């Protein structure tokens, strides 16, 4: 089955399909801590959560798209437990540290193979990544900041409904975190006007500064007076970044890592220090001149993007991230048409590690599959 078929199917059909997948079979063999999950293995819990979803009072009010998102969030929220579970040798307790972090990457890989559309895929992946947060809200020193921060990453209404199903989808009622914690999450999100939409920051600069500050001030309204605009391209080799620039930002000068490598005759597998230094200096020249430009590189990880964003922000630039991700088969085909072809194995590896950008990183974000 592909995504188009699965997204139109009912829950039982999706579960029947999932039973044969290697990731669900791994879950069925992964035991859980009995104090938290008396129902048994991870796959048993997963099926219980899925079925709790359709029992929610709010289920009938959701669109088919929202129902599909929640079903696949439930299917994949604990899919990385087989990769992370460990038994404490002293207590015998089973823990699965960072299973949500690894689960985001695993979910992205599974959904990419199904050719799930980019926006839906990332919605599901971020719900998988943050699915446990509502239950721990009372442990946060600033609950409001936690909810505001996540509102630009997930839809709180969907996160709340999933958390309800996750709490109810187990047999150990005494160890389930109280649903009152989840309702507290909902109440605060509603008060902050971000239960069904991202938090309404005063402007893009206010949002940008919020995510860059360890102690953000929600009452501060910064003046938007940018020196220039930097369009940061991101995407796998062969995703069409040059073509996008030619079609949408043809008037901008471009700093391209590929071009710098070519000029310096440095292969992508060699040390990239000199390449980065030259590219940084070219960016600084435009920034000092207050000239808008595009920065073109793969930029596939958040830490890599952050280093460049810090540079642009230091000069007061407005930063736009453009993330391109056509279907993988299209990327591989376009890669073969490049002057310098990247080995397919390398592209596959990059795809597995890719962290698509979010609206928390820049002033604006564009997602494109073409």
TrEMBL record:
Keywords tagged on the record: Nucleotide-binding
Pfam families per UniProt: AAA_33, HD
Domain annotation HD: ranges: 43-136
Signal sequence interval, chain numbering: none
MF terms in GO: nucleotide binding
Taxonomy, superkingdom: Bacteria
Entry-linked SUPFAM superfamilies: HD-domain/PDEase-like, P-loop containing nucleoside triphosphate hydrolases
CDD domains the UniProt entry points to: HDc
InterPro entries: HD/PDEase_dom, HD_domain, P-loop_NTPase, tRNA_CCA-adding_enzyme
Protein name: HD domain-containing protein
Species of provenance: Gimesia fumaroli
Lineage, broadest ranks: Bacteria, Pseudomonadati, Planctomycetota, Planctomycetia, Planctomycetales
